C-alpha cells in the first residue's frame, strides 16, 4: 500500500494519458440526467465527480450505490458504471437494469463481467490497469476516466484537463510537506476516535478518509458535514462523557466552503474544544476544486499508511470484507 500511495502522482499522470488515448464514441444525444454506479472506491469516485460538476453541468447527476437503480433512469439517462474488478455484483445489477431501461451506458473497469458486457453491447468504455491488488488505491484511475467519459459524451468541457495538470504539479511540489503533515495527523489519531468534519461539498473527501482509516489502519472513524451536523449531531456532544478524551476532531477546511459554513465551523469549534481531547485542522491547498480534493486525498492516504504502522497492522489486508464476500458466495 505504501508504494501505491507513493505512486499516486504517477497514477494521475498515467490516467490522463489513458483518457487522452481512449477511443470512445458516443452517439450525439442530449441527456436529461446522469447516474454513476459504483461501490467502495469506485463509488466514492462518483461522489467526488458529483461534487466537482455541481456548478459545471445543468442536469442532475446522482451516485447509485446499491443493486437497484432510480425509477427515473430511461432513454435520456447517461449511466456510467465504474468497477475496478469488473465483477462488483451491485454495479452489475445496475448495468443490467439500466440496459433494460434503454439508458446510454458507459463503463470504467479493468476487466471482468463489466468489460465483457461493454464489448458485447458496444458500450463506450475505458480500460484501466488491473494489476493492483488494492482497488481502493486506484481512485485516480476511476475518477480521471469518468471525467473523460463525461467529456466524450459532450457533457463536460475541457477545463478539467488543465485542472488535472495543475493538480499533478501541486502534488509534485508539495509531496514532502504532505508527508510531514500526514505523520503528525497519524500520531494524533493513534489510539483515538477520529471525528472528521467538512463542508458539504467536501463530504466525499472526508468519507474517503474515513474509509481509508477503516481499511488501511483497521480503525474506526466518524464523518459528518456542515451545515447538516449543526441541526442534529451538535446536540449529541453531551454523552458519553468518558469517550470525549478519546476523540480527536479534525476540521477539513477549504476555500470552497460557503461563508456561512466557515462561520458555523468557527462557532461550533468552541464546543468541540471544550469536550474533545484534541481539535485539529487541515486546510486544502490549491486554487481549483480538483487540486484541493486530490491534495487532501493524498495527504489522508499517507495518514492511513502511517497510522497502520503505528497500529502494527497491514494496510493491505481486508479480512472482514473477504469474510463477508465468502459467506455471500455460499448463498
From TrEMBL:
One of its GO terms (biological process) is carbohydrate derivative metabolic process. Signal peptide: none annotated. Pfam families: bact-PGI_C. SUPFAM superfamilies: SIS domain. Coiled coil: none annotated. Residues 24-161 form the SIS domain. InterPro entries: Glu6P/Mann6P_isomerase_C, SIS_dom, SIS_dom_sf, SIS_PGI/PMI_1. One of its GO terms (molecular function) is carbohydrate derivative binding. Keywords: Isomerase. Belongs to the PGI/PMI family. This is Bifunctional phosphoglucose/phosphomannose isomerase.
Amino acid at each position: 500500500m505504501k508504494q501505491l500511495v507513493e505512486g499516486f502522482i504517477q497514477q494521475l499522470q498515467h490516467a490522463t494519458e489513458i483518457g487522452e488515448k481512449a477511443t470512445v464514441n458516443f452517439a450525439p444525444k442530449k441527456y436529461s440526467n446522469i447516474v454513476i454506479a459504483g461501490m467502495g472506491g469506485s463509488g466514492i469516485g462518483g461522489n467526488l465527480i458529483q461534487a466537482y460538476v455541481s456548478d459545471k453541468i445543468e442536469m442532475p447527476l446522482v451516485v447509485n450505490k446499491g443493486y437497484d437503480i432510480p425509477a427515473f433512469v430511461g432513454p435520456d439517462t447517461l449511466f456510467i458504471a465504474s468497477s475496478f474488478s469488473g465483477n462488483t455484483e451491485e454495479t452489475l445489477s445496475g448495468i443490467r437494469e439500466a440496459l433494460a431501461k434503454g439508458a446510454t451506458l458507459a463503463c470504467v473497469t479493468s476487466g471482468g463481467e463489466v468489460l465483457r458486457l461493454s464489448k458485447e453491447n458496444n458500450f463506450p468504455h475505458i480500460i484501466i490497469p488491473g494489476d493492483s491488488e488494492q482497488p481502493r488505491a486506484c481512485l485516480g484511475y476511476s475518477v480521471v476516466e469518468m471525467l473523460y467519459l463525461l467529456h466524450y459524451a459532450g457533457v463536460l468541457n475541457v477545463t478539467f484537463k488543465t485542472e488535472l495538470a495543475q493538480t499533478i504539479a501541486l502534488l509534485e511540489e508539495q509531496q514532502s510537506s504532505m508527508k510531514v503533515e500526514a505523520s503528525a495527523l497519524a500520531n494524533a489519531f493513534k489510539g483515538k476516535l477520529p471525528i472528521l468534519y467538512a463542508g458539504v461539498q467536501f463530504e466525499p473527501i472526508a468519507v474517503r478518509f474515513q474509509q481509508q482509516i477503516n481499511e488501511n489502519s483497521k480503525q474506526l472513524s466518524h464523518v459528518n458535514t456542515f451545515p447538516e451536523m449543526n441541526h442534529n449531531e451538535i446536540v449529541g456532544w453531551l454523552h458519553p462523557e468518558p469517550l470525549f478524551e478519546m476523540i480527536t476532531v479534525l476540521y477539513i477546511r477549504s476555500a470552497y466552503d460557503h461563508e456561512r459554513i466557515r462561520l458555523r465551523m468557527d462557532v461550533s469549534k468552541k464546543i468541540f474544544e471544550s469536550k474533545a481531547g484534541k481539535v485539529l485542522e487541515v486546510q486544502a491547498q490549491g486554487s481549483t476544486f480538483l487540486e484541493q480534493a486530490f491534495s487532501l486525498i493524498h495527504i489522508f492516504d499517507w495518514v492511513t499508511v502511517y497510522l497502520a504502522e503505528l497500529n502494527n497492522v497491514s494496510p493491505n489486508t481486508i479480512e472482514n470484507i473477504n469474510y463477508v464476500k465468502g459467506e455471500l458466495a455460499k448463498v
